[in-house]
Amino acid sequence: MNEKHNILITGIHGFVGGNLVNSFKSKYNLYGLDIVSTLKDGVITTYSWDNFFIDSSSSFDIIIHLAGKAHDVKNITDRESYFQINTILTQKIYDFFLQSKAQKFIFFSSVKAAADKVVGDILKEDVVPAPVGPYGESKIKAEEYILSNLSTEKNIYILRPCMVHGPGNKGNLNLLYNIVKKGLPWPLGAFENKRSFTSIDNLCYIIDNLLTKNIKSGIYNIGDDEALSTNELIEIICYEMGKNPRIWKLNKSFMKFCARIGTFVRLPLNTERLYKLTENYVVSNNKIKNALGIKKLPVTAKDGLTKTIKSFVG
């Protein structure tokens, strides 16, 4: 494909959007679509959702739909907001895509659209979706709408990434970093788990390949090649901060009780966050690697997480 294609990125002011701009601004003509139309370096024009469908032309070759309501671990977001943003907004921009001359549509869904918990050792794309909660449910509804309105003349990709991280990332990695920074011990060492992550560098690499290669339409899990435990994350953080790991293996039942109290009084450690920090959630990325014709992604899970932690320390 021509390297100067016009690409529209929704949610361009978000974490992933900003990284795509930095990665792609010298290779493509980039346009943005977000809640606000603030100017952004490397972006020709940024539209707001309020005027996009009135003022924009349909001169885009590719649409990358990142805009969405993120998973709220504090459970303070009303259910309807997820469906208004993750489902209905996706339907609107996808309908626009079908009527436009754009030939590729990349939808940023989530592994949580497929499964809240991984049954068995590893999550693959052929699992029967069983989301739990409005975040995953709103994402799978968006997927279903796309799959029920496919075009044989266009390439359509539904990406299901696991937790994306990188410099500027916020979330559970920030929580772990702050625990180590304050000199607190990690009290959940008794929970032995493995989970997949997605380095922002690997994500940009995959999307760039989808833009430049003739990859078959479909659903693709996105994750790094290796799965890591939360204890390993603590060790990486401690190493980058020059600290010795303090990992306490406290009784699991006691820590679950503490998390229930945290849920009730809204402490940083609540039941949902405890589960997210200690669950087994390993995602297969074989399908996307096979489609791209590669055996390994460019960044290892450990190197990607190290880069993210360095950005916290720096």
What does this structure look like?
This protein has 314 residues and is an alpha/beta fold. The chain has a 7-stranded parallel sheet with strand order 3-2-1-4-5-6-10, with helices on both faces. A two-stranded parallel sheet has the order 7-9. It starts with 5 loop residues before the first strand and ends with a helix.
Q: Which percent band covers the strand fraction?
A: 5-15%
Helix content: 40-55%
Roughly how many Å apart are the termini? Answer: 38 Å
Strand order in the sheet with the most strands = 3-2-1-4-5-6-10
Q: Count the strands?
A: 11
Backbone CA Rg: 20 Å
Number of helices: 11
The general outline is: globular
The helix-strand sequence is: EHEEHEHEHEEHEEHEEHHHHH
Concise overview:
This protein is an alpha/beta fold.
Keywords:
314 residues, alpha/beta, seven-stranded parallel sheet, two-stranded parallel ribbon, 11 helices, 11 strands
What's the helix and strand layout?
Elements: E1 6-10, H1 15-24, E2 29-34, E3 45-48, H2 52-55, E4 62-65, H3 79-99, E5 104-108, H4 134-147, E6 155-161, E7 164-165, H5 172-181, E8 195-196, E9 198-199, H6 200-212, E10 218-222, E11 227-228, H7 230-241, H8 252-265, H9 271-278, H10 286-292, H11 301-313
Parallel strand pairs: 1-2, 1-4, 2-3, 4-5, 5-6, 6-10, 7-9
Antiparallel strand pairs: 8-11
Helix pairs in contact: 1-6, 3-4, 5-7, 7-11, 8-9
